[in-house]
Amino acid sequence: MDEEKERLQKVIAQAGLASRRGAEELITTGRVEVNQEIVRTLGTKVGPHDHVSVDGVPIEEREKLVYYLLNKPRGVVTTNHDEKNRHTVVDLLSDVSQRVYPVGRLDYDTTGALLLTNDGTLANELMHPKKRVNKAYLAKVKGLATEEQIQPLRQGVVIDGRKTAPAKVAISRWDHTKNTSMITITIHEGRNHQVKEMLAKVGLPVIKLTRQRYAFLDLVGLQPGEYRALKHDEVKRLKEGNYRNLRRK
């Protein structure tokens, strides 16, 4: 009986070294070896008796899977390594020995809820558009917003030739003295700069943006730059696809 084989990128992702997409990049850039030979072909299958290494390090001994929620501060980039030597979100997890990476991204000047893990399979699931994981933001915008202005966001607006999915949006308050408004907006897509571009589209340029919630995970108890490990039941809910927000007692 032939041994069961799996795609190389899946094996790398399950080992916690990268997301599925990140694993594909590791392969195509020649950083992966199978049985001491560099493999660049996506779709290559390996079995339990094949020896896989990334950057010369074997992946046979899988790291413990870990999951963290970070309250990302301003001025930090959402990546593991930055060519400009800027501070990264991974730098903030100073006492985490595992090699974690962010699930999705937040802009340099955007703050708030960011999940980091070494569970490539879960990360890939959460970032897949079909999963429709809600992300809730609070935006400070220029101008005194009106219901008429934000209504198009509820139907979707066209950005770069593509219409966005309908968003949940509401006006929280106005500051007549400073001519600004606070807007809450929830989306499930993950395009670059999406919230900023959506609000700019309706004449409300963003001054400050915070992601208040990722799925059901919020920032309660976390100051900017602080993080916490997810609880067992939180990880279970994410893996089961139960992304609904629960009311706090």
From TrEMBL:
UniProt domain RNA-binding S4: residue ranges: 6-63
PROSITE patterns attached to this UniProt entry: PSI_RSU (PS01149), S4 (PS50889)
Statement: the UniProt record of this protein carries the keyword Calcium: no
Keywords from the named record: Isomerase, RNA-binding
GO molecular function: 23S rRNA pseudouridine(2605) synthase activity
EC class (word): isomerase
Pfam family, one: S4
Enzyme Commission number(s) from the entry: 5.4.99.-
Keyword DNA-binding on entry: no
UniProt record similarity statement: Belongs to the pseudouridine synthase RsuA family.
Protein name per the record: Pseudouridine synthase
